[in-house]
Write a structure and sequence with these properties.
Blueprint: H1 5-19, H2 29-36, H3 40-52, E1 56-59, E2 65-68, H4 77-85, H5 112-126, H6 131-145
Antiparallel strand pairs: 1-2
Helix pairs in contact: 1-2, 1-3, 1-4, 1-6
Length: 149
């Protein structure tokens, strides 16, 4: 599994929206890009994909921007990664990413069970980390950096 810049940027964008979820105010793409260090042109494309898979929704106008479609506790890193790149383990013989598919070498392939196990292992991590957890981790990290005089 290769994690692309697009995958990282998408996760960072969703994290930014999760950090601001309680305000219920849309976050402008420009603000997400600036806070997370994401190129604007790239971020527009990412947000369109996330909108298409119903992770974010947009509001138009001067007070417009993006918001999450559901609470951060209901969105996992796995959801975002699959939206951006498809299945965790991509096999040339299985375009659907479904390990139940019969590729014609079912009886002699020694690797398919290994790839299926890798897919489950990756999924068990990415599907169990919610953006609520990432927000909590982020806020703990910010508190540790504060100095009071």
């Amino acid at each position: 599994m290769k994690i692309s810049a697009r995958d990282e940027y998408a996760c960072s964008a969703v994290l930014e929206l999760a950090l601001n979820y309680d305000s219920e105010a849309p976050i402008r793409v420009q603000d997400i890009a600036q806070r997370q260090g994401i190129p604007m042109k790239f971020l527009f494309q990412i947000m369109q994909i996330l909108k298409r898979v119903d992770i974010v929704r947009s509001r138009r106008g001067t007070e417009g921007g993006y918001v999450l479609t559901r609470p951060p506790s209901q969105i996992t890193v796995g959801d975002v990664m699959r939206a951006m790149s498809g299945p965790f383990v991509q096999l040339s013989c299985l375009e659907s990413g479904n390990f139940a598919d019969n590729c014609g070498k079912q009886d002699i392939c020694q690797f398919k069970p290994i790839w299926a196990e890798v897919d489950r292992a990756i999924g068990s991590i990415l599907n169990n980390v919610t953006f609520e957890e990432l927000v909590r981790r982020s806020r703990i990290g910010q508190r540790q950096l504060m100095y009071h005089i």
